[in-house]
UniProtKB/TrEMBL annotation:
UniProt keyword list: Nucleus
InterPro entries: CBFA_NFYB_domain, Histone-fold, Transcr_DNA_Rep_Reg
Species the sequence originates in: Micractinium conductrix
Protein name, per record: Histone-like transcription factor
GO BP annotations listed: regulation of DNA-templated transcription
Length: 134
């Protein structure tokens, strides 16, 4: 068996043709079928949606990998890397509610303390407002 030339992994996305899909058409049709706003979908539209999803996922993964490498972690893409990619790149801002950056509980509690200038509970805000009115 002959070895592949260096850098040409047959299973890598770059070695696939422009019409090859990793996300199957059946999977896309199934997802779209579950959406009440979408009726039937043509084969061409299904292909376009699948390819667009792949391109989007690749862009998110690349930006996340860049974030991981900057943090000194190149072997493992973590949720925080993906969330940072979404937060830092404006074209992905539509995903900000879906992929929010995480906040440690201790940091959130510190921000909620009165006088911290951070987030306050509704009760604390009401108490602060009542104190200012007197």
């Amino acid at each position: 068996m002959e070895a592949s030339p260096a850098g040409s992994n047959p299973s890598s996305p770059n070695s696939r043709g422009p019409t090859a899909l990793l996300i199957t058409a059946g999977r896309v049709k199934g997802l779209l079928r579950d959406d009440a706003d979408v009726g039937s979908i043509s084969t061409e539209a299904c292909f376009a949606v699948a390819k667009a999803a792949e391109v989007l996922l690749e862009a998110i993964a690349r930006r996340g990998a860049t974030h991981a490498a900057a943090a000194g972690r190149s072997a493992l893409l973590e949720y925080s890397d993906v969330a940072a990619a979404v937060a830092e790149w404006e074209p992905l801002s539509f995903l900000a509610d879906t992929v929010p950056q995480t906040v440690k509980a201790a940091a959130l509690l510190d921000r909620m303390k009165p006088g911290s200038g951070g987030v306050q509970t509704a009760a604390a805000a009401a108490a602060a407002g009542a104190g200012a009115a007197s």
